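Pipeline run #58 for the internal structure catalog. This entry was flagged by the ingest filter as a single-chain record with no existing model, so it goes straight to prediction. Upstream metadata was stripped on purpose; only the residue string is passed forward. Reviewer on rotation: M.T. Logging verbosity set to normal.
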Amino acid sequence: MGEQQHVTFPQEIIDEYAALGVDLQALFSAGHLGTRMGVEIVEASAERVVGTMPVEGNTQPYGLLHGGASAVLAETLGSVGSMLHGGTSKIAVGVDLNCTHHRGARSGLVTGVATPLHRGRSTATYEIVISDEQGRRVCTARLTCMLRDVNPKDAERVRPTA
């Protein structure tokens, strides 16, 4: 679950962050929580972010995918899209997350696809659709992130350490 993952980025994004010495793999990972939950981001751009998460290990007592696990996947994907939209001068901070759970999932992988509903100067809103392996909608979420200016302390958190 914590193994290195391959994320697909547009070349202009790779170049922009590389010029600042920022490790894109670390910056756009799912973080410690996402790693524990097995979240993997497989495609990332401001227009579309795709990620997967196993159901196993992320269930509630009845054996169904936990709604909070769906929320973690949704917020991760929407935040990545918001960060890519904001670029290197902004940092995305989630301010509102809404999840509607449509059906349960007991096994396999769920896949989330985040697409923008609004991309402004100070906020970005993404819709995230989470589906099971049969393509059935498990959850629909909406995430709004505030885009705030990066300060030097933020920049230090995303630079690779020796």
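catalog note: The two ends are 24 Å apart (CA to CA).
catalog note: DSSP finds five helices and six strands in the chain.
status: ready for reviewer M.T.
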